[in-house]
Amino acid sequence: MSSDAHRHAVPTREFERYATYRGLNIIYEGRSEQMEIRAPDISSRGMFIHIATHFPEGAVLKVEFRLSRSGHMVRTRGEVRYCLPGVGIGVEFVEISPEDAQAIEDEIGIALGY
């Protein structure tokens, strides 16, 4: 068996992601604990979160964070699309307001100098 058979498939991204926020909190729906973690990148459609905790694909999370430059607070629900054990999770935003999505886009634009 080749080593390629043991690799995890990571979905390709439709949108580029950038680190433009701080104070990320997630709550796994159905559990009471709140976890504060740091995620390296974001788009208006989702984010990758570095966290050692395993989450099953399809798990629904409440996600809150503050954008670094504008200070805009984003509150959304996300669904785990994939999990890399011991590394982190890819989360797609499934309920995000148009205002929050636009604030993320604006923050990314500022980070890129647009």
Write the topology of this structure.
Elements: E1 21-28, E2 34-36, E3 41-42, E4 46-50, E5 60-67, E6 73-84, E7 88-95, H1 98-112
Antiparallel strand pairs: 1-2, 1-5, 3-4, 4-7, 5-6, 6-7
Distance from N terminus to C terminus (CA atoms, Å) equals: 48 Å
Residue share in β-strands: 35-45%
Average pLDDT rating:
78
The beta-strand count equals 7
CATH topology: Thrombin, subunit H
Strand arrangement in the largest pleated sheet: 2-1-5-6-7-4-3
Tell me the overall shape.
globular
Question: Can you walk through the features of this model?
Answer:
With 114 residues, this protein is mainly beta. Strands 2-1-5-6-7-4-3 form a seven-stranded antiparallel β-sheet. Helix content is 13%, strand content 40%. It is globular, with a radius of gyration of 15 Å. A hairpin with a 3-residue loop joins β3 and β4. Mean pLDDT is 78; it is low at 1-8. It has a single domain, classed as Beta Barrel (Thrombin, subunit H).
Concise overview:
Helix content is 13%, strand content 40%.
Any key phrases for this structure?
single chain; 114 residues; mainly beta; Thrombin, subunit H; seven-stranded antiparallel beta sheet; 1 helix; disordered N terminus
